[in-house]
């Protein structure tokens, strides 16, 4: 009983003591942290941008490996970091997920990847593309905007998923779709040079693959290395 | 087909590069320009300038040289505006055109202007109510918004801003021509002139009701309750702002409206806008970079008191006040929590980038306002600023012999924290008794510093250690203790507000301070400093 009384008394004393020194601070601003300027922004020291892109395939195709340029495309999403050097120059890195699809001509004489003609057939490449770039800004007095810019860069391409997909209409009117994965005649790694001209969140880009995409039995063939399209920044 | 699409896309991208950019051109001089003050200024402006000792033939009032104007017109793509005060023109010009303009002998400087459109900040708006009914909470707020500045003291002596002319620059004033909150203005023909600088028309009823709301905080009435303190003032209403986007042209409109207001003998400009990111960097908030800050400074030089909202960006990355509140001669108004008298979370903080004290004063950041077709409760320093404008008009009526900048200092001195200041409240909320009570008494000490061993305490004096009549005002009076700590160089390290809930209101240890640090405390009108170590 005595112990219990002592504990209760001690608790009450503690409560009173705590209350006596309580100070209800309704506003506190520490200038040490308050005066810090954010270094992140479109024209600040650092900037991160989420992007989507889409492009057509351009160039010349091989005999026997004809490409339907009208329908072939690439699209994807990415993130880009920019580090400001000065008002004019910047550099950065980027990482894109890219899905590229080459629709193949289904005409007599077709040899790539085989001679079988289908209603539709395409090669698709799903890739991760890390890259670096150098940026030239064309309006130094642009405040905290991206402004007009030209980018020159290079990207590594890791094709983690390659597929050959065919589609055919059967005699009964239904469709058949076949898919071959992990194509043995494609390179997993490739390299591209990239050029962009941009206005704020919108940019037009051209990408030129400077390494071969095909190997082995098809190493003498070429898939068009050029794509040109647009990219849009979400922020 | 694909190549056609690509071609047009590339063209689309390239077009902005080829397109005309916007520039501000400053001229070297105003040689051979004729100017007649009597023809240009209103009688009122002339009278006021003579009273304030401001020149009527200052070259900044002269028009720009017409031959310069013609030469620029001939070379530029288009001209969007011109200014006597800043002796220049805003033009669109391509690279070649601007090169040609640059070669003109009378061109002093060319600044590229950001002509892009950005989304404007949003006002946080609460519920709307009908004309006939404000609930108890809203009525309390309505009374508070003027009573906290002791507005009734002005009312009791029939001071309502009579003889003061106020220009309000905003997004438009829909409903002002019919709203019951402004019936007295219409009846007394107090709205002297209106102009929509965006549409170049006199009708200002287009646009967003933000302007209607700010006007109501200066001079509106809800039934018999004043919403602002300048119900007897005269008004010029200028639409200079878009509501949902912010093209740079708004700063030109503001400049043009300020010149227009000066010509019409305006005493006070009230504007509830601010230009910040991404148009400017924080380092541009030095009072002389943005066009609108330079325009506001010129307006102050012409004898006009410029009252501007501090901004609503304390909680954003931007954090600090925007332009034109960054200008030295602009009375920047921050916002407080109603009924609690400390910084409301969004009100932009000072100082300016170059370290000058801002905001200067503050007022409630939440208020009952008139909207196009009713009343609402709205948040933002947009409403703090016009409440102070109304106060300033009334204060100026009490002593017309003071200049705009003298009034500026008096408004600071009248504020409830003066001489204490910090970067959230400035000098605090202006108090009417400063202007109406000629027998102002010095405040007696309300607290003492006590240092025992290494303990540092602030102890309230007996008479101030409890609240005598909590609800005499209809709402619980606030008992805030404001304190700040500055280093030996006078740089503010921190500032705080705490509730004075007990006699030993602040308890620290002397080790909490660096040698030379100074703590300054304000409580119940009394300010005292101490260096604990």
Task: Write a brief structural summary.
The complex is a heterodimer of chains A (235) and B (533). By secondary structure, chain A is mainly β. Chain A has two helices and ten strands, in the order αβαβββββββββ.
Structure explained in plain terms:
The complex is a heterodimer of chains A (235) and B (533). Chain A is mainly beta. Chain A has helices at residues 2-20, 31-34; strands at residues 25-30, 46-58, 73-84, 89-103, 120-137, 148-169, 175-181, 189-199, 202-209, 226-233. In chain A, strands 2-3-4-5-6-8-9-10 form an 8-stranded antiparallel beta barrel. In chain A, β6 (148-169) and β7 (175-181) form a beta hairpin. In chain B, α9 runs parallel beside α12 (381-398) and α10 runs parallel beside α11. The longest helix of chain B is centred in the C-terminal third of the chain and has 18 residues, at 381-398. Chain B is of the alpha/beta class. Chain B has helices spanning 2-18, 37-40, 43-52, 66-75, 95-102, 136-147, 151-156, 183-187, 210-219, 249-263, 291-301, 381-398, 404-413, 433-436, and strands at residues 21-27, 78-83, 88-93, 107-113, 124-129, 165-170, 191-196, 221-222, 225-226, 234-239, 268-271, 305-309, 330-336, 361-364, 366-371, 374-379, 447-452, 455-460, 480-486, 492-499, 504-509, 518-523, 526-530. β1 of chain A pairs antiparallel with β20 (492-499) of chain B.
């Amino acid at each position: 009983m005595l112990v219990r009384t002592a504990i209760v008394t001690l608790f009450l004393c503690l409560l009173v003591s705590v209350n006596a020194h309580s100070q209800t601070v309704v506003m506190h601003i520490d200038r040490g942290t308050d005066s810090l300027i954010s270094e992140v922004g479109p024209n600040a020291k650092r900037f991160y941008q989420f992007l989507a892109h889409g492009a057509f395939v351009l160039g010349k195709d091989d005999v026997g490996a004809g490409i339907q340029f009208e329908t072939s495309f690439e699209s994807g999403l990415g993130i880009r970091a920019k580090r400001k050097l000065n008002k004019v120059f910047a550099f950065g890195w980027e990482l894109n997920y890219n899905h590229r699809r080459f629709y193949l001509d289904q005409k007599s004489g077709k040899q790539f990847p085989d001679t079988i003609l289908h209603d539709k057939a395409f090669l698709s490449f799903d890739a991760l593309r890390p890259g670096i770039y150098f940026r030239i800004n064309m309006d130094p007095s642009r405040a905290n905007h991206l402004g007009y810019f030209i980018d020159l860069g290079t990207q590594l391409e890791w094709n983690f998923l390659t597929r050959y997909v065919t589609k055919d209409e059967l005699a009964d009117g239904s469709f058949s779709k076949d898919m071959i994965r992990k194509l043995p005649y494609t390179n997993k790694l490739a390299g591209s040079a990239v050029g962009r001209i941009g206005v704020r969140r919108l940019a037009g880009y051209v990408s030129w693959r400077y390494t071969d995409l095909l190997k082995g039995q098809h190493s003498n063939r070429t898939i068009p290395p050029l794509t040109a399209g647009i990219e849009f920044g979400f922020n | 087909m694909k190549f056609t699409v690509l071609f047009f896309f590339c063209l689309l991208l390239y077009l902005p590069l080829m397109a005309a950019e916007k520039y501000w051109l400053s001229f070297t001089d105003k040689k051979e320009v004729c100017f007649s003050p009597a023809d240009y200024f209103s009688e009122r402006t002339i009278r006021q300038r003579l009273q304030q000792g401001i020149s009527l033939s200052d070259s900044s009032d002269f028009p720009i040289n017409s031959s310069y104007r013609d030469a620029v017109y001939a070379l530029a793509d288009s001209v969007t505006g011109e200014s006597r005060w800043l002796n220049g023109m805003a033009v669109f010009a391509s690279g070649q055109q601007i090169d040609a303009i640059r070669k003109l002998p009378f061109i002093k400087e060319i600044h590229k202007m950001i002509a892009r459109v950005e989304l404007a900040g949003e006002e946080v708006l609460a519920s709307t109510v009908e004309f006939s009914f404000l609930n108890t909470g809203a009525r309390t707020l309505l009374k508070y918004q003027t009573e906290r500045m002791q507005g009734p003291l002005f009312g009791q002596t029939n001071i309502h801003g009579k003889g003061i002319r106020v220009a309000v620059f905003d997004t438009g004033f829909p409903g002002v021509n019919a709203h019951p909150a402004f019936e007295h203005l219409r009846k007394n023909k107090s709205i002297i002139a209106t102009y929509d600088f965006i549409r170049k028309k006199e009708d200002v009823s287009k646009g967003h009701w933000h302007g209607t709301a700010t006007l109501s905080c200066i001079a509106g009435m809800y039934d018999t309750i004043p919403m602002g303190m300048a119900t007897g003032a005269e008004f010029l209403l200028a639409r200079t702002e878009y509501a949902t986007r912010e093209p740079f042209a708004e700063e030109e409109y503001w400049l043009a409206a300020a010149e227009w207001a000066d010509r019409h003998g305006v005493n006070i400009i009230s504007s509830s806008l601010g230009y910040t990111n991404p148009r400017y960097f924080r380092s541009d908030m030095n009072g002389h970079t943005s066009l609108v800050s330079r325009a506001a400074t010129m307006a102050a030089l012409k004898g006009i008191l410029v009252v501007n909202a501090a901004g609503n960006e304390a909680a954003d990355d931007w954090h600090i006040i925007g332009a034109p509140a960054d200008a030295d001669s602009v009375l920047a108004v921050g916002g407080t929590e109603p009924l609690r008298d400390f910084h409301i979370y969004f009100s932009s903080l000072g100082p300016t980038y170059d370290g000058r004290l801002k905001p200067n004063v503050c007022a409630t950041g939440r208020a009952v306002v008139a909207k196009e077709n009713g009343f609402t409760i709205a948040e933002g320093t947009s409403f703090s600023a016009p409440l102070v404008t109304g106060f300033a008009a009334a204060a100026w009526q009490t002593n017309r012999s003071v200049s705009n900048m003298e009034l500026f200092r008096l408004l600071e001195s009248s504020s409830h924290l003066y001489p204490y200041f910090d970067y959230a409240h400035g000098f605090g909320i202006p108090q009417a008794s400063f202007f109406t009570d000629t027998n102002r008494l010095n405040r007696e000490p309300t607290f003492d510093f006590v240092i025992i061993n290494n303990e540092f305490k602030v102890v309230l004096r007996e008479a101030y250690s409890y609240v005598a009549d909590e609800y005499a005002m209809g709402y619980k009076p606030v008992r805030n203790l404001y304190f700040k700590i500055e280093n030996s160089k006078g740089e503010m390290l921190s500032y705080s507000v705490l509730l004075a809930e007990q006699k030993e209101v602040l308890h620290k240890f002397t080790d909490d301070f660096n040698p030379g640090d100074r703590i300054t405390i304000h409580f119940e009108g009394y300010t005292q400093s101490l260096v604990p170590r």
